[in-house]
Amino acid sequence: MASIQDSLSQLMAIDGALCAAVVDSGSGMLLGSVGSGVDLELAAAGNTEVVRAKLKTMKSLNLNDRIDDILITLGKQYHVIRPLQQHEGLFIYLVLDKDRSNLALARRKTQDVEQKLAV
To answer: What is this structure's pTM?
Structure first.
């Protein structure tokens, strides 16, 4: 098992990674963060609302499923939100430079990091 800081360091090793965080979706608070380019405290609070909205919509649709990840594609960046399956109420937030990253590999690495994260 890897600590939050070790896990965030692994995420920052992804090509094109700008910043990453582990967020408590109950409070919107950061449990750990690394990198720059985005106000991670503001992003944590805002993306908490994204996760809550998606879960509410899934419940309204009677979808008996889970979120693997939520991808937000901007002009210059990818924002990946990955809820932790083993730690309900937490998610990984990763920001990638669109021109310097491989989205498929980044999603795969984020999944690997999630499985080894000890909170």
So the answer is: 0.94
